[in-house]
Specification:
Elements (H helix, E strand, L loop, with lengths): L3 H13 L13 E3 H7 L10 E8 L9 E2 L2 E2 L1 E8 L7 E2 L14 H7 L4 E6 L1 H9 L4 E4 L21 H14 L3 E6 L6 E2 L12 E2 L4 E3 L2 H17 L4 E6 L3 E3 L6 E3 L3 H8 L3 H15 L6 H4 L2 E6 L5 E6 L4 E6 L6 H8 L1 H8 E3 L5 E3 L1 H13 L6 H4 E2 L2 E5 L4 E6 L2 E4 L4 E2 L9 E2 L15 H15 L9 H11 L11 E5 L6 H11 L5 E3 L7 H8 L6 E3 L11 H18 L5 E3 L7 E3 L5 E5 L7 H4 L2 E5 L15 H12 L2 H13 L1 H4 L5 H17 L7 H11 L1 H9 L3 H11 L1 E9 L6 E9 H10 L5 H9 L2 E6 L2 E7 L3 H6 L12 H4 L6 E7 L2 E9 L27
Parallel strand pairs: 7-8, 7-9, 9-13, 21-26, 27-32, 27-33, 28-29, 29-32
Antiparallel strand pairs: 1-2, 2-5, 3-4, 5-6, 10-12, 11-12, 14-15, 16-17, 17-18, 19-20, 22-23, 23-24, 24-25, 30-31, 34-35, 36-37, 37-39, 38-39
């Protein structure tokens, strides 16, 4: 019997060949011969023909030991084999097949490409895959995917129940949608040119001139994929094999057999790229159960507005499709619409030679005819993607995910129904978390944890933590809200701003779109990613005032605020131009949590839609909390969903009582702060405190911000300030003296001072009047009151306002229409009849009784009316 240290070294060496250590194998122990025999439940005379082993215990998805015959199940990797007939692995006698779930699996699934996992053979390969970020499960053998306990031969051909249950859970609870059955390279079919000539006799020939070294591995992968595909409805499955390693060149070329672990070890630092190159084509080839012969087909919805495309609902895809008429006779498109089985059944037959043929032209005609009879289909008003929406026909919330739609209790909702106007699709990059039953106790535990975690940040006002919580909770109802307020975290370095935004992202369970490159993100990119879905956006490093950022970053920040304004209200769509000159409408349903170091200067329209949250630097003893787990995020989301009715009542109560809670506040202020306060209060953020009590506490803390927003200049005031401070070029006629001829002298003055000078003088200077007229303005008298006429459109005015937000010709109309007493009428401007806004001069921010020289100015006859 060899020493324990020698066995330890043998175990470490075996695992190192797969890029692993003993610590990577959950619960592993190195066993001598006696301990190994006991672990296998063998008698003394039943030797294992090896010096020892290391154990590989099996666990459930939650980490509980997996039992077999009421004993924790494990397998042993034998060490120090006595002869060549000693097997490498052994399991206890009489035990059944089980699925190996590495300890790292769920973490890999959460961070890998959404919804894709691998099933392989061998525990070490699964652990190596998970360590490399590839969510991988394993079977102990290539044929152990069937049910050995079936009551008859047919039942024994079914999928292993344990594997079926596990895959169902991963699909329903963790968003798994694609599974790759990936076996070793000896099952990979190769071209004849890829096989070393001296070894061609050891390969088995397949169809299409392919050869395989181990036909059993080849067929096992195909059979497992087919069985899983037929057993797990909706799961896309494909089969593949690791590529063998080519060593040497020419006649000395050989192929080295590899598993997934060998591939990753060989690739070293390029392991992710090597895995992606192997897996990408397998993901593309993955298909789900072909039940379309029975469940396929389509529902015609109508025609596009330009009559160039049909709009229909594809039953196999369970999604909306807009298909160009020119592609309706193409077989791949028809298969995508109705499913292969349905297409072959309804439009296929055999020709005289027994070869299959398909009538694609007839299929296209029938689809077109059915859609024409339903008229024009309006996608903007009827289609909703992933997110949470309020359905008036159902009278409640609908939670839409890529794998289906649910009501607030987790019961399925049909994506399309004859008696319902709204259609729910799988559009959108981010989807709500999978359903979980969230009781009051579980929800309260998660909420208390979040409130405790938020206290670790140093908010300027303690109640700001409630607004941050309220924002996160209100985004759960995003598509159902009438108003969608945003928050902006402002803090110096060392305040934990980025950590807080990352914490919010995890709290929402993957529902939000998160980036720490806010300054590089574009509004168009976000709008296109959202499509018709609703999900919040979390952007860090969105500096609006930073002088070091590029012009494009500053433009993106401004565009992001514009997108935020559009998304705030649930009413109406935004229409954008498209490359085909047809345009497209978007209903933007999102809310933002932004982060920056500098305090942004917000326009009035934004100041009442965004709540600014100020953070102070953290103390040296502050320790940032760990983020919420995926399960905690799901509990928070679905527990909040169940509080929708209470939230609505609380919000209505706040809005109706807002004049008393916040005197001087308008309806938008009530919408913005009321939504966040109602969400936090409904969840139970301040037990024992009334809704009005919480609101008063929050409003008291944030009174300065509210006052600033209320006192901020309106667009009209900002425009008049910009107009009166704009510099005007004036051409003055000046006598030269000796020759008696006049010459032109160009001087500058502000528009405001020029208007004031015209008003002060009984006989206005023609040069001043001409300068104003060249910029589309003239001082007029309406009755006894002086007025300023501003042309509705004028290139001179546009040039004067260059560099301001009103530089586009005619864009100043929105500001002028709000001036008290303004009228829009036809007037004369330097002998030309033009449409103009006529507004009282009293509305202008100018001083009429000031001096610009040593002697007082003579006044215009009407100037005294303004004193």
């Amino acid at each position: 019997m060899i020493e324990k240290q020698t066995l330890q070294n043998l175990a470490e060496a075996d695992l190192a060949r797969s890029g692993l250590t003993l610590a990577d194998v959950r619960g592993a122990q190195v066993l001598d011969h006696v301990a190994a025999r006991a672990a296998l439940r063998r008698e003394r005379e039943q030797r294992i023909r090896a010096e020892g082993a290391y154990s590989i215990p099996y666990f459930s998805l939650e980490g509980a030991p997996l039992t077999d015959q009421d004993v924790p199940f494990l397998r042993l990797r034998l060490l120090g084999a006595h002869d060549g007939e000693t097997p490498r692995y052994l399991a206890p006698s009489g035990s059944l097949s089980h699925v190996y779930v590495p300890a790292q699996f769920l973490d890999a699934l959460a961070h890998a490409s959404a919804g894709v996992a691998v099933l392989t053979e061998g525990e070490k390969k699964a652990i190596a895959g998970c360590k490399a970020g590839i969510p991988t499960l394993a079977l102990p053998g290539i044929r152990m995917f069937r049910n050995p306990l079936g009551k008859d031969e047919e039942a024994r051909r079914d999928l292993l129940p344990e594997l079926a249950d596990l895959l169902h859970r991963l699909v329903e609870d963790y968003g798994l949608h694609t599974l790759i059955v990936l076996l070793d390279s000896d099952g990979r079919p190769l071209k004849k040119s890829e096989v070393p000539l001296e070894r061609i006799d050891s390969y088995t020939g397949l169809n299409a001139g392919r050869y395989v070294l181990n036909a059993d591995v080849y067929f096992a992968a195909l059979q497992a994929a087919k069985l899983i595909r037929g057993s797990i409805t909706g799961l896309r499955v494909s089969a593949g094999w690791v590529t063998p390693a080519q060593e040497g060149k020419g006649k000395s070329r050989t192929l080295r057999h590899r598993g997934l672990d060998d591939l990753l070890v060989d690739a070293g630092e390029d392991a992710v790229q090597a895995y992606s190159a192997l897996i990408a084509p397998l993901v593309e080839r993955a298909t789900n159960t072909d039940a379309t012969a029975r469940d396929g087909g389509y529902l015609p919805l109508g025609m596009s507005s330009d009559s160039h495309a049909v709009v229909l609902w594809s039953r196999p895809q369970d999604n909306l499709m807009t298909v160009s008429l020119s592609t309706l006779t193409q077989q791949p498109m028809l298969v995508a619409i109705m499913g292969r089985g349905y297409f072959e059944t309804h439009y296929g037959d055999l020709d005289a030679h027994g070869n299959p043929r398909f009538d694609a032209a007839r299929a296209g005609r029938e689809i077109t005819d059915a859609c024409i009879t339903r008229g024009v289909f309006s996608e903007e008003s009827r289609v909703r993607g992933c997110g949470v929406w309020h359905d008036p026909d159902l009278g409640g919330l609908v939670v839409v995910r890529r794998d289906g739609a649910l009501d607030a209790t987790g019961q399925p909702v049909e994506r399309l129904a004859e008696d319902r106007r709204t259609i729910y699709t799988a559009q959108g990059k981010n989807q709500p978390p999978a359903y979980v039953r969230a009781g009051d106790e579980e929800y309260g535990q998660v909420l208390r944890r979040i409130l405790g975690d938020l206290r670790t940040w140093n908010f300027r006002y303690r109640s700001s933590a409630l607004l941050v919580l309220g924002w996160a909770l209100s985004t759960v109802f995003l598509g159902a809200l009438d108003a969608r307020p945003s928050i902006w975290l402002i803090s110096p370095r060392g305040s934990g701003k980025s950590t807080l935004l990352d914490y919010l992202n995890h709290a929402l369970g993957g529902y939000a779109w998160f980036t720490d490159m806010g300054k590089e993100s574009t509004p168009a990119g976000i709008r296109q990613a959202l499509e018709s879905s609703s999900s919040p956006c979390i952007l860090d490093e969105l500096e609006r005032e930073a002088t070091s950022q590029s012009a494009s970053a500053a433009q993106n920040a401004a565009g992001m605020l514009s997108l935020m304004r559009s998304a705030y209200s649930a009413r109406g769509d935004v229409r954008k131009g498209t490359s085909d000159q047809k345009g497209r409408s978007f209903r933007i349903a999102t809310s933002f949590a932004l982060g920056s170091i500098s305090d942004p200067t917000l326009e009035p329209a934004d100041a009442s839609r965004i709540v600014r949250i100020y953070l102070r630097p953290l103390t040296t003893r502050s320790r940032q909390p760990a983020v919420l787990s995926l399960k905690e995020g799901r509990v928070l989301f679905w527990g909040t969903i169940q509080r929708w009715d209470r939230f609505r009542k609380a919000l209505d109560a706040l809005k109706s009582g807002w004049p008393h809670l916040s005197p001087g506040g308008d309806a938008r202020e009530a919408d913005t702060f009321g939504t966040l306060i109602a969400a936090a209060w409904t969840a139970g953020a301040m037990p024992g405190v009334s809704l009005q009590g919480m609101a008063k506490a929050v409003m008291c803390d944030h009174a300065e911000q509210l006052t600033e927003a209320r006192e901020q200049a309106s667009e009209t005031e900002m425009f008049l300030q910009a107009l009166c401070s704009a510099v005007l070029n004036i051409e003055e006629r000046v006598s030269s003296g000796e020759d008696g001829e006049d010459r032109i002298q160009r001087v500058t003055d502000t528009v405001g001072e020029t208007i004031a000078r015209v008003l002060r003088n009984p006989t206005p200077d023609p040069d001043d009047e001409k300068a104003l007229a060249m910029a589309g303005m003239a001082v007029k008298t309406t009755g006894d009151s002086p007025c300023l006429a501003v042309a509705v459109r004028n290139p001179g005015m546009a040039n004067l306002l260059r560099g301001t937000r009103w530089h586009a010709d005619g864009s100043w109309g929105s500001a002028l229409r709000e001036v008290p007493g303004v009228e829009k009428k036809v007037t004369w401007l330097r002998g030309t009849s033009v449409k103009a806004y006529i507004m009282p001069v009293a509305a202008l921010p100018i001083v009429l009784d000031g001096d610009s020289g040593d002697a007082p100015h003579p006044r215009h006859p009407v100037a005294s009316l303004l004193m």
